[in-house]
Structure formats: C-alpha cells, structure tokens
Specification:
The complex is a heterodimer of chains A (95) and B (605). Chain A is mainly beta and 95 residues long. Chain A contains one helix and eight strands. Chain A starts with a strand and ends with a helix. By secondary structure, chain B is an alpha+beta fold. Chain B has a seven-stranded antiparallel sheet with strand order 2-1-5-4-3-6-7, sandwiched between helices. In chain B, a hairpin with a 5-residue loop joins strand 12 and strand 13. The chains are: A mainly beta (95), B alpha+beta (605). Strand 8 of chain A pairs antiparallel with strand 8 of chain B.
Chain lengths: 95, 605
C-alpha cells in the first residue's frame, strides 16, 4: 500500500495507521487509532496560563505514540465525551 | 468574453466594494465600525445571489444574500429604482438584531441588475441592555427592534415616519442615525460605481462577466476539493453561561467535489442569548471557509454551491423563536467558526500540497463588553471595548501564529488606540499588552492574546457601567492541531477597591498589583465605579505540532519577549534555561524523560 498522509503526525502504510515519527503501527487501517495511542489527560486548570474561571473537569487529552513518545494529537474533552473521530476514506477502502 | 475585459470588470467589482467600505468608514462615527471594522459590504446579483464578497465580518456574506432574497420575495412588484430596504430579523436572515442590513436594488434603465448590501453593528437597537448584546434577555422580544424587512427609502425619498419610529426606539438616536446614514452613503457609492461600470461596458457584458466569475469560483473550488482526500473530520467546542455547558459538535464530510457540515449532536438551544439561527450558523461556517479554502478564489455564489449544512432544529446552532440570540456573534456563531476552522485545517493537513494552508484556531472568543453611561463631557456614551477585535493568530503548519494577530472571520479586524477609548469613555487604561502563556504550545506556537485593565477617570457619575457577555472563561476554544495545545481562555476580573483612600491603582502594571478584592465576572451588567478596576484578558491562538519539537532557541526568545513563562518553557516545551541561555544538555535530558513518560503513562489498549 502506498503511504497516505493522514495528518502532520500520522500516515497509512502497509495496511496500518502508523506514527510518522518512528513508523510504529498503531492499528489496522480502517479502525479508529486513538484507543491504540497512549493517552494522558492533563487538567487544563493546571496548565501555564490557565485563567481563574477554567472549568475544573475539562482536560486536554494527549495522544502519544507508544513507541517513540511523539505527540500525535490533542483534544479538549469533558469526562465521558467520546474521542473525536477523523476518518480518511481511502485508508478505510484499502483495508 | 475576451479575458482582458473579464479581468478588468472583475477588478472593477473589487474596487466598487473597496470604495463603498471607505465611504462607510468616512461617514460612520463609531469606534466599533471605524476601529474594530465590525462591518461588511458586498455586491449581489439581481436574484440576491452573492456576486462579490467584500471584507469585514465574513459571516455576513451569506446572510446578506438571504436578506436580499427575502426582500425580493416580500416586496415582489414593489422594488423600484432608488429604494433602500432595512432588515435585521435573525430568523429571516440577520445574525442578531444590532447588525442591521441595508440593501439597495441597483436598476439600469428600469431593469433590476444587482444589489448592494452592507451592515454595521449599530450604536444601539433598543434591547434591554445598551449596545445590542443583551445578556439579561430571556427571549428575542427583549433584544430590541427587529424587522424582517421594511422600505426605508422609497424611490429616493427617505420615509420619515419609518426613520422617526426606528430612532424613537433606540438609545443615542443621533449615533444610530449616523450609523444608518453611513450605510446609505455606502450603498449609494456602490450603486453609482456599479452604474458607471455598466455605463462603460454595457449591462449585458457586466452580467456576463458576473456569471463567468461565479462559474469560475464554483469550478475552482470543486477542482480544489477533488484534489483533497475524501473523509470526515470532527471538532467539538465547549462553552458555558452561568455554569450551563454547551457543546457544538461538527462532523465535516468531504466526498468528491462537495462538503457537508453536520452539526448533529450539538446542544439544545439555551435560555441564554448565546443561541444562533440557521442563517447565522451558515454564515459562521463560511467565515473561515472563504479565507482557508478560497484564499485565491473570488468569494461568491460559486463558492456556496458545493457546500451543504445540517443544523438540527431546536439546537444551539439553529434555535427556535423566541429563544434569545443577541449574543450569538460571540456565542454559538463563534463556536461554529472555530469548529469549521479546525475541520478544514484537518482536511488540508491530509494533503501534501495543501498542508501549509492548514491553521489552528485563531482568536476563539470575543469578549463583548459594552460600556454605557455618562461620559466626561456630560453626554452619554455607549460602545464596545474594541480590544475584542485584536485577536490572536492560530499557528500554521510552517510558523507561529501572529501575536494579537486578528481573527479568521474578519481579515481586517483591529482594535482602537488606548487614547481613542479614553476619549470616548470616562476611563483610564492602567496597562494593555500581550498576555504571557496565552498562545497554545506547539512546535509552532499560537499567537498570544492580550490583557488590559481600566479604571474610571474624570467621570461625572463616578464611573460607568458595562454589559458583559463573557463566554470563553471556562473552556479553551482555540483548538490546536496535530498535538498543539489550545490557546488560553478569557478572564474578566472586577477589582473592588479597598475602603482606603491610599489604596489607588495609580499605575499598577499587572492584576496582582491592583489593590482590592478580586471577583471573577462573566455574564450580566456590572458597575465600574469610583476606585474599582476592571481587568480583562483575551485568548490566544491554538498551537501546531508537538511542543517538544519546538526549537529551543525559539522558546528562549519567547521567554525574552515575555510571550511565555519559565514554567511554560519547562512544563510544555521541556526547555531548561540557565540564566539567559538554553541549557542544551539539561533540555535534551528533560525532553527525553518527558517522551519516556508519554510512552509509559496512559498505556494504550
């Protein structure tokens, strides 16, 4: 399979979604990749520059490559909200 | 049509809009128009379709098209040469009542050939709070004068009864009259220049060029979409009012040469005035689409055709009447802007060719602070703190966001000088500057927002009041991309002066140095009286890429420039500064340990 760019940090290659930093295969193409990344949840209220009114439960989800530690994506989320799901159809089709 | 004539007419259309904008600004007397550039001028075809989108707040390009179409339907058979119509009903076309559209039909030898339309945020619209943003409103009926369309000028003659009725319903009628006159003058100039163009080249030639221009834009956007991969991308925005949390959820799907923006899953409509109507949501998604996807394509009906919006009825992005909407432009509309910016940015990032066009979210939160009360000259003043238009750039694929760099939905937004604001209101600025740690961290940092503090000064009534519609304090909305952090949030702090004559803010240079008890505020009407102070900070742009990949030399420069703190240099960027230099060895070690932590914490499935 030709390498297909998914984002600045991810590609699809050899039937998998892979980390651009080290080539680590996160998951078989066609599946959501985020559950297969390492996920840290950083409370926004504790980040440098946080304001006085920040909601205590809002977190910054950080999705990292389990192999090289590259940060692959981030999203803000309230507890229980699902991962944002970005789908590239060519990656799914070729699976 | 020969390409040279086409090109000349195309350029002349741009100049028509440009000259009309200049006229609007020359006649208008309000800071929100002249300094903040909260305005828009565009040209429309005879059927109301967008012919040439101008500058200003881009949400209005599609809404004003609907305004023209609505006027065409409502006044069928009664649209005459020299007429001018007013429309500001959010359920008909407008964004909120204080953004008034004035639209002029352009006739040539008795034939309707085009429309000119413009808006400004008028000085007041008679809502329950001065200035148009009405945080206290419970429904749209409390948000001031609202018209689905009326004829203000009939065959060149001002309808004095309508004019007097409108001005009888607003505060500061002389200023509202000036706003309206500025828009009338703007439309007159647009009309004159269009007729001059038609006079020189002939009406059929200009119409043919317009048709070609629209076809060209549609073809070019569809071709661009075909170059981009098919897929769907999501974004989620949170915002709150008085502890009630709202979500705007967007799934943008691109297939072939079309795009669908689906807001299914967004929160139900709110009892607070942050809702928006469907026309506002449509404008909201187009505001970032025009500059991000169509930076080299003329903004007109051709750009609109490949786009579809799904906005569930009764939701915060398509509310029912009479739910209030006066804060929409800084509420749900802005969340739509931000979400669309993110999904478009994600789509562009999939393409090697277009990756450099992707951008993290810019200035995600306006702060609508409308001050009102007796000014230092004994008269009354109403107006916005224009720093809300100062903005902050989102980081790009190749570079940092611009500090206090404006916003995507309005390419010409800016803030007034401190001296202008001090001349308009009985206030004095203690400080105004970039806000440290406000730009989202990333390999490329989001642009910083800013911070400022004001105190009453030379105020006959002891101070002034302000209506604050302050969403954006609880949740960061300037999303980052590809590992970038979001920009920091807004904040509004009322400093209650100590009851001690010696405890004056004088020349305090930061919030901590202002003497008094500090209270966070975000929604409602508040006083700024006596020795109290108001501190405001506004959000930065989102970051792009992994912060641990940022060049340590840039981190050091950010420290020198006070764009970031030592704490951020260490915690976010993993850079250790020894005195005034980067400690290369310690930085390498720290970054390695931070990456290792990522590899071991939060273990994957």
């Amino acid at each position: 399979m030709t390498r297909v760019r998914i984002s600045r940090t991810l590609s699809a290659a050899d039937g998998h979604i892979v980390c651009n930093g080290c080539g680590h295969k996160l998951v078989v193409a066609g599946n959501p990749w985020k559950p297969y990344a390492n996920i840290a949840e950083v409370p926004v209220i504790g980040m440098p520059g946080a304001g006085t009114g920040v909601q205590p439960t809002i977190v910054l989800r950080q999705f990292s490559c389990p192999s090289c530690g590259s940060l692959l994506d981030t999203e803000t989320a309230m507890p229980g909200d699902p991962f944002l799901d970005d789908v590239l159809e060519v990656v799914n089709d070729r699976n | 049509m020969d390409p040279i004539t086409f090109s000349i007419i195309r350029h002349r259309l741009f100049r028509v809009v440009e000259e009309a904008v200049m006229t609007l600004k020359h006649v208008s007397g309000s800071a929100i128009t002249n300094e903040g550039h909260d305005l828009m001028v565009s040209l429309y075809e005879a059927d109301g379709s967008l012919l040439l989108g101008g500058v200003g707040f881009l949400h209005h390009l599609t809404s004003a098209a609907e305004a023209c179409k609505s006027i065409i339907r409502r006044f069928a058979g009664q649209i005459n040469e020299g007429d001018l119509f007013l429309l500001n009903d959010p359920h008909t076309a407008a964004l909120h009542t204080s953004d008034i559209y004035l639209v002029s039909p352009i006739h040539h030898e008795g034939e309707l050939i085009a429309w000119s339309a413009c808006f400004v945020h008028v000085y007041d619209i008679g809502a329950m709070n001065p200035g148009g943003f009405a945080p206290d409103a419970q429904d749209v009926f409390s948000e001031g004068f609202s018209s689905p369309g009326l004829k203000l000028i009939d065959r060149g003659v001002l309808r004095q009864d309508i004019w007097d009725t409108l001005l009888n319903m607003v505060r500061g009628p002389e200023m509202v009259a000036l706003d309206l006159r500025s828009m009338i003058a703007c439309n007159n100039v647009a009309k004159d220049r269009m007729l001059a163009l038609v006079g020189k080249y002939g009406v059929r030639t200009v119409q043919q060029a317009s048709k070609t221009l629209i076809e060209q834009s549609e073809a070019r956007l569809r071709a661009r979409l075909l170059e981009l991969p098919d897929g769907s991308w999501q974004s989620r925005q949170y915002f709150d009012v008085k502890g009630e949390v709202y979500r705007t959820l967007l799934t943008m799907t691109k297939r072939g040469d079309s795009l669908v923006f689906d807001f299914t899953g967004s929160s139900e409509q709110s009892k607070y005035a942050v809702n928006c109507t469907k026309w506002a949501s449509l404008g909201g998604l187009f505001a970032p689409l025009f500059p991000l996807l169509c930076y080299d394509i003329t903004w007109n009906e051709g750009v609109i055709r490949p786009i579809t919006m799904i906005a569930p009825k009764g939701s915060i992005v398509n509310c029912d009447k009479p739910f209030p909407v006066s804060v929409a432009t800084v509420g749900a509309i802005q969340s739509v802007n931000n979400a669309a910016c993110t999904t478009i940015g994600k789509m562009l990032a999939c393409s090697e060719k277009y990756a450099d066009q992707s951008s993290a979210v810019w200035h995600a939160n306006h702060f609508a602070i409308f001050m009102f009360g007796q000014n230092q000259r004994g008269g009354e003043s109403i107006g916005i703190l224009t720093e809300t238009f100062a903005g902050a750039g989102g980081a790009r694929n190749f570079g940092d966001g611009v500090d206090i760099g404006g916003e995507i939905p309005n390419p010409i937004s800016r803030m007034a000088n401190v001296e202008t604001m001090e001349a308009l209101f009985p206030i004095r600025y203690l400080f105004r500057r970039r806000l440290r740690d406000s730009g989202g961290g990333g390999e490329f940092r989001g642009g910083t927002g800013g911070e400022m503090a004001i105190v009453p000064h030379d105020a006959p009534s002891g101070g002034i009041h302000y209506a604050l519609s302050g969403k954006g304090t609880a949740f960061p909305q300037s999303e980052g991309l590809a590992g970038g952090n979001p920009g920091a949030v807004n904040d509004y702090v009322w400093v209650h002066a100590y009851n001690n004559p010696e405890a004056k803010p004088n020349f305090a240079q930061n919030l901590e140095a202002i003497p008094g008890d500090k209270q966070s505020v975000s929604w409602g009407v508040f006083p700024l009286m006596n020795k109290d102070a108001l501190y405001v900070r506004w959000n930065g742009g989102g970051g792009m890429g992994d912060p641990l990949e940022r060049d340590p030399a840039k981190v050091k420069q950010d420290l020198v420039d006070q764009a970031i703190s030592v704490e951020a240099a260490t915690q976010i960027y993993g850079v250790v500064i020894d005195g005034i230099a980067v400690d290369v060895r310690s930085t390498k070690k720290l970054r390695e340990s931070m990456r290792k932590l990522r590899m071991t914490e939060g273990v994957a499935v």
